[in-house]
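> call design_seq(struct)
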């Protein structure tokens, strides 16, 4: 039994006439009658009663019609689901993001807009550090990640920049430097730094240390925070000062204040990384959305003000 047998049977049952059913199917009447006879032979019972020039379903045919309609409906649903998946309108998209990326309005806007455009795609979110997310991308356990470069291993990775943020200094609110409207790196030469350091030695903290040295001093490292938000909380506890991306100013623990860092470098780059050989349409739709968002951004990429 093939799907065409079911389609021929349903058409005949609905038309109650072989000739009309054949016309609707776009085939000649004799082949249709032959296909119905073959179907009845396989089932082992007639499906129609002949009435005048037409036909009506008998009791067996009525039972078979119900099942045939269900099967054809499932086949059509499977076909449409596969077609939606081919267009990236269905499926699963596994997105990873760093903790600091979740504070950036462009990241949350991108995910929200993607879900709005593709409501039938299941979006799965996972938070981790940039290097772990890049490793998961390489292992194909995740599809796309919002991360901050550089990466110790980046072979086969396609990276699209979404934002390039200025930095701010986090100070205890009673700190003498809080009286300044903005700060230079050299203003921090006597401070204890709270940093977030990657195991590889790459990343924003490494760039900050390098920039301090270019400004004539080696920063004193007081604490190493497990993540950037922890650095802000450690500042609130009086453990030192921290330098973080400007988008994280929305964190407002008691006892801290933020001051802009007047420096053209370093900057906190944030973007989307995918596999260079990725073929999934749900991922390419995300990259297309990123391209549209970047094109609509006015001027240089930067974090929107808070």
């Amino acid at each position: 039994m093939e799907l065409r047998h079911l389609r021929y049977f349903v058409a005949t049952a609905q038309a109650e006439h072989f000739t009309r059913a054949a016309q609707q199917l776009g085939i000649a009447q004799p082949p249709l009658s032959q296909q119905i006879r073959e179907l009845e032979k396989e089932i082992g019972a007639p499906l129609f009663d002949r009435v005048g020039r037409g036909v009506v379903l008998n009791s067996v045919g009525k039972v078979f019609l119900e099942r045939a309609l269900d099967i054809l409906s499932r086949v059509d649903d499977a076909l449409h689901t596969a077609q939606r998946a081919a267009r990236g309108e269905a499926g699963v998209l596994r997105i990873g993001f760093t903790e600091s990326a979740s504070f950036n309005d462009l990241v949350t806007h991108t995910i929200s807009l993607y879900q709005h455009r593709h409501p039938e795609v299941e979006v799965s979110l996972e938070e981790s550090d940039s290097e772990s997310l890049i490793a998961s991308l390489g292992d194909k356990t995740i599809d796309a990640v919002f991360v901050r470069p550089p990466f110790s291993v980046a072979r086969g990775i396609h990276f699209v920049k979404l934002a390039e943020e200025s930095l701010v200094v986090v100070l205890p609110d009673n700190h003498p430097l809080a009286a300044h409207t903005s700060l230079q790196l050299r203003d921090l030469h006597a401070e204890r730094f709270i940093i977030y350091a990657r195991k590889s030695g790459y990343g924003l903290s490494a760039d900050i240390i390098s920039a301090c040295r270019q400004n004539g001093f080696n920063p004193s490292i007081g604490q190493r925070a497990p993540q950037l938000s922890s650095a802000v909380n450690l500042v609130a506890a009086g453990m030192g000062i921290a330098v973080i991306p400007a988008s994280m100013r929305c964190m407002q623990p008691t006892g801290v204040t933020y001051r802009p860092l007047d420096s053209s470098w370093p900057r906190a780059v944030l973007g989307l990384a995918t596999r260079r050989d990725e073929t999934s349409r749900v991922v390419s739709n995300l990259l297309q959305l990123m391209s549209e968002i970047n094109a609509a951004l006015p001027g240089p990429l930067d974090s929107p003000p808070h």
